Each structure stands twice: as structure tokens, then as C-alpha cells.
Amino acid sequence: MEFIRHNPQILRYNAIAAVSSASGQLCLFYTIQEFGPTVFTMIMTVRQMISIFVSSLAFGHQISVKAACGACLAFGVLFNQIRHKYHAHAMGESLPVTAAPSQ
Q1: Rounded (10°) CA dihedral 76, 79, 81, 86
Q2: Can you say how many angstroms the Cα of residue 91 is from the centroid of all Cα atoms in its chain?
Q3: Which of 29, 56, 86, 88 could form a disulfide with 61 if both were Cys (CB 3.0 to 4.6 A apart)?
């Protein structure tokens, strides 16, 4: 409480953060309800890619060729998995169930 008393502007910032968080959650729930979890996953993956790119530009960080190739490979695999699930769902097919590895 002493911190708040010495920094009353923190209440405004906390209120902004709370409203932003709550409205963000509403957007997440709406997206999943309307478009399904697969589309939501695609949106979040693209958001991560854009976040990495903008962050590197904004803060002047260099992305090495290895890091760029690794990111492209990782996001490519994710997109391929998501696309496969999306098309299988759209066609009404069931995805094969893989057995858990025996120990």
C-alpha cells in the first residue's frame, strides 16, 4: 500500500491493464467460438511471427541466418500441422490416432 501511496498513477496503469486483459480474453473466446481452435492457433502463430519481426526491427536486434532458418522451419512445421488439421476437419475426416509409446 505504501508503494501505491507514493505512486498514485499506478492505479491508472493497473486499470488500463485490467481492461486490456479482459477485452483481450473476450476476443479470444469469440474467435474460438466463431472460428474454432484451429483458426485461433493459426492466428496466434502468425502473431508470434509478427512479434518477433517487429521486435527485431524496433530494438535493432540482428537475426542470424541460422535463427531465421530455424524460425522458418519451426513455423513451417506448425503451419503444416495446423493446415492438415484444418483440411481434415473441413472434409469431415477423422485424424489418425497415434498410440502412446510403450515403456
Answers
A1: -160
A2: 26
A3: 56
Tally the C-alpha atoms within 13 A of residue 83's C-alpha that lie toward its C-beta: 6
Distance, CA of 2 to CA of 37 (rounded, Å): 44
pLDDT per position as a tens digit, 8-20: 999 999 999 999 9
For residue 20, the SS3 value is helix
DSSP codes of every residue in 31-51: HHHHH-HHHHHHHHHHHHHHH
Pull the grid cell for residue 33: 467460438
As a whole number of angstroms, the distance between CA 72 and CA 23 comes to 31
Cell numbers 526491427: residue: 57
Flag whether the pTM goes above 0.85: no
